């Protein structure tokens, strides 16, 4: 089985993507890395994510727009990691970490990840022409009035 793994942490240095082949079973499981790459966010999106991580308040509409922009970037990474590779059957995505709440005496630790799957569900084959957030002039869901 071919699987893509995607993740981006609070450093927001990019989306880490891996394409692996998993074979065998419980006693002889094998995982082979076919491709691995970090895909940079568009700078405006990276700055917005960093601002949110730093505590910038967003309306729900702005949060939804950020969610969509992150989803498009993750869809692009999933598409790019497969160039000149066999097509994956499954995607595992941790998403973009936007907040960590450290543990205290009164609460458990918590973390918030933006992990929107929408662009990967728009087609029976999620790898067939997903939106590309890195085009020359992509739609910017972060612009005022975009929603």
Describe this structure in words.
This protein has 147 residues and is of the alpha+beta class. Helices cover 25% and strands 29% of the residues. It is built from three helices and five strands, in the order βββααββα. It is globular. It starts with a strand and ends in a 26-residue tail after the last helix. The model is unreliable at 122-127 and 133-139 (pLDDT under 50).
The proportion of residues in beta strands is 25-35%
Which residues sit in consecutive blocks of at least 5 with pLDDT less than 50? 122-127, 133-139
What is the average of the pLDDT values?
A: 80
Characterize the biggest β-sheet. Answer: 5 strands, mixed
Q: What is the H-and-E element order?
A: EEEHHEEH
The spatial strand order of the largest sheet comes to 3-2-1-4-5
Globally, the shape reads: globular
Radius of gyration: 17 Å
Q: From the helix content, strand content and strand pairing, which structural class follows?
A: alpha+beta
- The end-to-end distance, rounded to whole angstroms, is 39 Å
Q: What's the helical proportion of residues?
A: 25-40%
Number of helices: 3
Multimerization status: single chain
Total strands: the figure is 5
What attributes characterize this protein structure?
3 helices; alpha+beta; single chain; 25% helix; 147 residues
